[in-house]
From TrEMBL:
Name of the protein: Maleylacetoacetate isomerase
Keyword Cytoplasm: yes
All residue ranges annotated as the GST N-terminal domain in the record: 6-89
Keywords tagged on the record: Cytoplasm, Isomerase, Phenylalanine catabolism, Transferase, Tyrosine catabolism
Subcellular location: Cytoplasm
Limits of the GST C-terminal domain: 95-218
A Pfam family: GST_C_3
GO cellular component, one term: cytoplasm
Lineage: Eukaryota, Sar, Alveolata, Ciliophora, Intramacronucleata
Spans traversing the lipid bilayer: none
Length: 221
């Protein structure tokens, strides 16, 4: 839930999947936060400006200011929040093996899928290598989701890991959005599709959707 009076400040871009993960998790936990937009495309990208790099020297979103500290990288941000600001509920199962499976799904997306198709990589492929950005992104997203689909064969209940929403779901939803943007055939992923259909009706995920963000363009191409 966004708000102007909060102890948590989230620096975000409306369509950043990494920022989306954090938004969804904060919503699920019932933690209010202040949203500060960072435009990744305007004037070469506000994330590259000196003012923002003082917050996150890497020049990426999200960045979260919490407890007087500035955090970056979505997974460690969310693990910090889980440990220090549990909110209304945990995002990990209590069972050790299922906790591992939750992290496994997160990492398939976080390390093996999203970074290879993020904006900076796609721009580099186009500008320096003359490559087809869409074909590149589609290939890597499909490869990553095939791995997630296989894991869900074992772990899926109502959601990605059992019948409670976990951090894995916060990572899955934005990646499926990207898959649809790049026209991946999602019919090959029935487990993912059934989980996503259940997640999309939850208020926490609806309120984290890019189209609901204050910096979302009124008309999208």
């Amino acid at each position: 839930e966004t708000g102007g009076n909060s102890d948590i400040i989230l620096y975000s871009y409306w369509r950043s999947s990494c920022s989306w993960r954090v938004r969804a998790a904060l919503n699920i936990k019932g933690l209010k936060y202040e949203y500060r937009a960072v435009n990744l495309v305007k004037d070469g990208g506000e994330q590259r400006k000196d003012d923002y790099k003082k917050l996150n020297p890497q020049g990426y979103v999200p960045a979260v200011v919490i407890d007087g500290k500035t955090l970056s990288e979505s997974l460690p941000i969310l693990e910090y929040i889980e440990e220090n600001h549990p909110g209304e509920r945990s995002l990990f199962p209590s069972d050790a093996y299922l906790k591992y499976k939750t992290r496994q799904i997160c990492e398939i997306i976080n390390s093996g899928t999203q970074p290879i198709q993020n904006l900076s990589v796609l721009q580099k492929i186009k500008e320096d290598f003359g490559g087809d950005m869409n074909a590149w992104a589609k290939f890597w997203i499909e490869k990553g989701l095939k791995s997630v689909e296989t894991v869900l064969e074992e772990t899926k209940g109502e959601y990605s890991v059992g019948d409670e929403v976990t951090l894995a779901d916060c990572f899955l939803i934005p990646q499926v959005y990207n898959a649809n943007r790049f026209e991946v055939d999602m019919t090959q992923f029935p487990n993912i599709q059934s989980v996503v259909a259940r997640l999309e009706v939850l208020e926490a995920f609806q309120n984290a959707h890019p189209d609901k963000m204050p910096d979302a363009p009124t008309q999208q191409c």
